[in-house]
Amino acid sequence: MNDQIFETVITTVDSAGVGHVAPMGVRYRSTPDGRPGVVLMPFKPSTTLANIVATGCAVLNLVTDTRVFAACVTGRRDAQVLALLPAQRVAGLRLGLALRHVELQLVECRDDDQRPRLHLAAVHEAEHAPFIGLNRAQAAVIEGAVLVSRLQLLPADKIRREMAYLQIAIDKTAGAAEHEAWRWLREAVAERLPVDPDSETLRNTP
After folding, report:
1. How many folded domains does the chain comprise?
2. Which element (helix H / strand E) includes 47?
3. pTM for this one?
4. Strands 100-110 and 57-62
5. Which CATH number belongs to the domain containing residue 61 in this structure?
6. Residue 157 in domain
7. Domain match, 56 and 150 both
8. Which range marks the domain in which residue 169 is found?
9. Rounded to whole angstroms, how far apart are CA atoms 163 and 186?
C-alpha cells in the first residue's frame, strides 16, 4: 500500500498568538487511543514545528484556491488569501477561505535530526463551503509551488522543463485565481534562476 500524503495547509500560532501559514503534506492516521488524527513531519528547523511544540495545537485547512500555496512559497505573506480567523476549540487560527478545517491537538512528538514525527488528534472540524471539484490547472499550480520551494535544490533546466509542461494545463483549464497563482510562481522562478538566453520557457504569456 502506498504511504499516501495529502496536500493541505497547516496554520499554527506562536506563544504570542502570531499566526503562520504553511503548505504541508499530511498522513491521515488514527491516534494510539483510536481517535481520528494526522501525522505531520515538518523539517527542522521550521516555524510550524516550533509553533506546534510551543502551543500543542495546529489547524489543518482544506482549500481549492491554490493561490494559498503560491503565496506561501513566493513570500507573499500579506496576500488576502492568507487571511486568518480564530479557531473554535484550540488556541489557534484557521484560513478564512478554507472549505473545511480540522482543529488538532498534539498527542505525540518523536524527535529526529531532520524531520520530527508529530501525531495530532482531531478535536473539532467544520465545513464552510462546498467542494465543487478540481481542475488540471489547480494541480499544476501545486506542482509549480513544489518546484519553487526547491529552486535551490533542483537543476535549473529541470525546473524550466517542468514549468513549461505545467503551462499546458494552465493554458487549457485555469481560471482567474489559477492564472494569478501561476504568475506569482513564474515571477519567482524568473527572479531566482539564472537567465537562460536560449529558453522561451519563462517569458510571460497572456
Report:
1. 2
2. helix 47-55
3. 0.90
4. antiparallel
5. 2.30.110.10
6. yes
7. no
8. 136-192
9. 8
